[in-house]
């Protein structure tokens, strides 16, 4: 349970307990900011989001190209091994021909070819104009998705990074406690040798020392796992060496103040709400796009080319080719679609209404989240002050108890109890500190203030 609390506190001291290292890290050394920047460059989810953003930009360019002039050329060659024949009354060519006689005349040549170029241009198309706006909005949506991915990666890396720092602090505390207990143990062994204390006093201290040693070994193994998790979140190889340059220092609780009770005034600060706003734009553009289908469209087409035909292939290169050209304006006027577009608009409006309802639901959820975070934070501020007071008292108790024991007016059990109480006070203090940092991060997230800008 304690380890879970420590892990949940990964974002905790981003702005309060951690100091930023120099901008450029030495090889294998990372501050929290540098670790996040490294992860944003290498994380697969962010790479995919950037690919989506690139695709969205290409989609915008693709839609723009539809409204620009379109040109293409064609070259055609046709061979007719058997030229088609058309049956014509013989009297057409010979008035003396018998009644009912027909002539099977060839209609065409064995070889024919043509070469032409064409140009088309949209003059007016309502759907194209709306589609161009929609593609720009789609690009905006991909940007919001990239922002959300960066926040998720920054949060995951911060949790893993801070977990390593916390474990370092815990290791340091256990080593100090063990060192102090070793000193007491050695003194007690000497006093037992001289006959001033019983062997039972030595045994009690040895049991406590063994327990501390085991706990220290466990946390050091846990630190190995925490470091591998950090490397994984950063996109590093788990065998690659890493050094953390940020340090976790003892925090003065006086810097924490009760949270103000203001609710979020600008919901767009939350990336989830901003994404819904973009989706609302897209849905409104979809309605306009369908409605634009009722408007006429006008296009311009121009063609120019040459053609020729012969029964002898070699004559293609000697006989003349004849040019041809055409210019056309095409006006398409929608008249009746059996209410197809009308029903599409109804469906699209229903989808828009659902988005608006989801916005209202998200606003209520954000208000609740902010209020809960404010209450939780204020409660934990008071709790941390109490835990710090208990820590100060237990530190003074262990100091006085050790002095009494050395002067022979205190017992071995009092020292052991004081050590246990001090260790428990340390654990309680850091647990309360982690919980407070978690509450602070939760409040920042609820207000849309938690964002690590990578500069990428």
From TrEMBL:
Signal peptide residue numbers: 1-25
Entry-linked SUPFAM superfamilies: Outer membrane efflux proteins (OEP) (SSF56954)
Entry-linked Pfam families: OEP (PF02321)
Record GO terms (molecular function): efflux transmembrane transporter activity; porin activity
Cellular component, GO annotation: cell outer membrane; efflux pump complex
Domain of life: Bacteria
Annotated localization: Cell outer membrane
Keywords: Cell outer membrane, Membrane, Signal, Transmembrane, Transmembrane beta strand, Transport
Broad class of where this protein is predominantly found: membrane
Keyword Phosphoprotein: no
InterPro entries: OMP_efflux (IPR003423), TolC-like (IPR051906)
Family (UniProt): Belongs to the outer membrane factor (OMF) (TC 1.B.17) family.
Protein name: TolC family protein
Organism, as annotated: Dyadobacter pollutisoli
